[in-house]
Write a structure and sequence with these properties.
The protein has about 325 residues and is an alpha/beta fold. About 50% of the residues lie in helices and about 10% in strands. The strands form two sheets. A six-stranded parallel sheet has the order 4-5-6-7-8-9. The protein has a three-stranded parallel sheet with strand order 1-2-3. The longest helix is centred in the first third of the chain and has 21 residues. The radius of gyration is 19 Å and the shape is globular. About 45% of the residues are buried. The model has no long low-confidence stretch (mean pLDDT about 95).
Length: about 325
């Protein structure tokens, strides 16, 4: 049984430089980037500098730390915020470049790396074409860092991207990033805007928007991956279903057009990973809720330590460790 970690981040020099420049110009239209990401990109010492060095490495250093941490393979994805903060042309160009670099790294280390394609949702037609190209490069899915300039994938303009992902059997990993300005301030006032609380809250909301607006009725083959034990949704499914049924029967919320309650789609169209949350009681609970076929191991490198996450997960009495560590990742991402 191998250990495949499925939410592991990297960055390209081009994206890093573009992000630094964007932040230096004041990050127009964005909030929280300087605090949540700039402190890594611009760090010269301490944890931030260490994380930045590891984000840029797609070779010896990364593999050495995988070996030291007991991880056999990483599924790599461009780190948040990805290319979604830029204008459409810039974002698309950087995504194409990043996918070429990632595909080259996978070819160089096929037994250690697999990859998820970056796309620029702000250019949905180009993104749909890039999904097709990325599959031809051997990439195994798509990474999208939640909202794009405050907009979400349930919007009709993003449908070509979702259709391409479903048609090409490329699961979308929906990953957190700082909230849009409209909801950011209450989190930031108490520095809860990143991994403490804001990330999971905003990304979980994004997933629920997809469910409630009937996206999966239209695209039943679309598969979404959520990290961090499902961004909290598994813990709320029972109440969500009761609220949904009661509200729809009463005609309260006409915007809720899904044909079935929330859990129907969450247990059919979503996979969950343990990135940064390999905590015994929570991990066993989520395995019970989503089932052994929809839960995968992840470490969240380099933002979490490989060895700590591996050792923490190893102490959990899971029902099916082989599926958790290896089998589900091979099936979901078509890893040979």
């Amino acid at each position: 049984m191998l250990k495949i970690a499925v939410e592991e981040a990297f960055i390209t020099p081009g994206v890093a430089e573009a992000c630094r420049d964007f932040i230096h110009k004041g990050a127009p239209g964005e909030m929280g980037l300087d605090y949540s990401f700039g402190r890594v990109l611009n760090a010269t010492s301490g944890w931030g500098a260490k994380a930045n060095e590891r984000l840029l490495d797609l070779g010896e250093l990364r593999i050495a730390e995988m070996d030291a941490g007991g991880i056999d393979m990483q599924v790599l994805a461009l780190t948040a915020p990805g290319v979604q903060i830029f204008d459409a042309d810039t974002g698309h160009h950087l995504a194409v470049e990043a996918n070429d670099i990632l595909a080259e790294a996978v070819r160089a280390h096929p037994n250690r790396f697999a990859g998820l394609a970056a796309v620029a949702p702000q250019a949905p037609i180009s993104s749909a074409k890039e999904i097709e190209r990325a599959k031809s490069l051997g990439l195994k899915g798509v990474i999208i860092n939640s909202h794009t300039k405050g907009e979400y994938l349930d919007g009709p303009g993003y449908r070509p991207l979702l259709e391409a992902a479903a048609a090409n059997n490329m699961p979308i990993y929906l990953h957190p990033r700082p909230s849009p300005p409209a909801m950011y301030v209450p989190f930031y006032e108490r520095h809860m805007d990143s991994a403490m609380w804001g990330f999971q809250t905003e990304t979980g909301m994004h997933a629920l928007r997809l469910i409630l607006t009937g996206v999966f009725d239209d695209l039943p083959d679309l598969q979404i991956v959520l990290g961090h034990l499902g961004e909290g949704i598994p813990f709320w499914l029972d109440r969500m279903d009761r609220v949904y049924v009661r509200s729809v029967r009463s005609g309260f919320y006409p915007q809720w057009t899904a044909k079935e309650p929330v859990s129907h789609y969450f247990l059919k169209n979503f996979f969950v990973t343990s990135s940064g949350h390999n905590w015994d009681p929570a991990l066993r609970f989520v395995e019970e809720v989503v089932g052994v076929d929809r839960l995968m191991f992840a470490a969240d490198y380099p933002y979490e330590e490989n060895r700590q996450q591996v050792d923490q997960a190893a102490a959990v009495d899971l029902k099916d460790p082989e599926k958790f560590y290896e089998g589900n990742a091979r099936r979901v991402f078509n890893l040979t």
